[in-house]
Amino acid sequence: MHRFVLLACLLLPALLLPRAAAAETVLNVYNWSDYIDPAVIARFEAQTGIRIRYDVYDSLETLEGKLSAGRSGYDIVVPTSEPTFARLVRAGALQPLDRARIPNWRNLDPALMQRVAATDPGNRFGAIYLWGTVGLGVRLDRVRALWPEAPLTGGLDLLLKPENAARLASCGLAVIDSATDVLPSVLAWLGKDPNSADPADLRAAEQALLAIRPHLRAIPGSGAMLDMLASGEICAALTYSGDVIQAAARAREAGKGVELRYLVPPGGAHLWFDMLAVPADAPNPAAAFAFIDFLLQPEIMAAITSKVRYPNAVPASRPLVAEAVREDPNVYPPEAALAHAFVPGTPAQGAERLRSRLWNRFRTGR
């Protein structure tokens, strides 16, 4: 008898283990690199018992390719509103958000949500996570050493004028590897419509990029760009605002004399929004809605903005953001700057093909 009891005691854990493993809820998140406070993930897991599997990408093209193939296995993705999020909405690749399961939706800024409503009528498929602009990151100490009179108020002139790029090439120049985020800014710099599908306008943008291509040290993804800026490997880069602001903070912590500044194009910057979205075939949408609701709490969004130095769309979070971040006009641009900013639309298919071929020629330098 005692042997049967002993055997049952030995077998019971083995019988229960598969059931316990099967009951574990896993949330699969696919987000930009360096784009969340790890403490937020730990807090969500502790509060809900849901385990997060967190993967990262460093370009919109990578994200879109993964989702377009179908069955990505992700429950949460963070595409930029234009054009990736817009294309995914039109392709039926995302599912509507269940607002009943996201009561903290009420915390979102209606004015900012209206900015993405053209892409997502009624804001059915996405909530703004973080946002920012595209501009110029400059290592001031190196630029001033090479060129004391460098035009630091002329927006993208410092990089996009070939004679300026040639003058600064020795200290390292870079352009973020994203046609989606670079071409609208180049078109605007040329005085053209950022959404232009005119082949002549796109040729002009290509010529402008090819003119500086010999002077570039790199065309990196976002993660690599951040590292190159923080280490001082490059002195001027066309990239995301938060990359520069994060890199500047890292450089200050390292204490090696790398001084970075973010320059917003004075004529109007490319404004973008990264959206919390749920793929149509998400394996666990209920956990995804719970995570979105968790993120939209003011104290949680404040922690994320304080960590990654990108602004969020929850106004009640701002007083809770670290003061150095909250008061930085590069993180939270003045209203006047936002009024002049543009949100690019989604190129038509023909224009998209032209842009893709243009970008490939730019990357290869021919």
List its salient traits.
2 domains, three-stranded parallel beta sheet, D-Maltodextrin-Binding Protein, domain 2, five-stranded mixed beta sheet, globular
* CATH architecture assignment of the largest domain: 3-Layer(aba) Sandwich
- Fraction of residues in H or I helices: 40-55%
What is the mean predicted local confidence, pLDDT? 90
* SS summary, helix count: 17
Count of extended strands:
8
* End-to-end gap: 83 Å
CATH class call of the largest domain: Alpha Beta
Helix and strand composition category: alpha/beta
Number of domains: 2
Radius of gyration: 23 Å
Q: What is the quaternary state of this protein? A: single chain
Name the CATH superfamily classification of the largest domain: Periplasmic binding protein-like II
Q: What is the CATH fold-level name of the largest domain? A: D-Maltodextrin-Binding Protein, domain 2
Tell me the strand percentage band: 5-15%
Major sheet attributes: 5 strands, mixed
Q: What shape does the CA trace take?
A: globular
List low-confidence stretches: 1-22
Helix and strand succession?
HEHEHEHHEHHHEHHHEHEEHHHHH
Give an overview in words.
The chain is of the alpha/beta class and 366 residues long. The chain folds into two domains: 22-126 and 277-296, 3-Layer(aba) Sandwich (D-Maltodextrin-Binding Protein, domain 2); 132-271 and 344-364, 3-Layer(aba) Sandwich (D-Maltodextrin-Binding Protein, domain 2). It has 17 helices and eight strands. The strands form two sheets. Strands 4, 5, 6, 7 and 8 form a five-stranded mixed beta sheet that branches. The longest helix has 22 residues, at 2-23. Mean pLDDT is 90; it is low at 1-22.
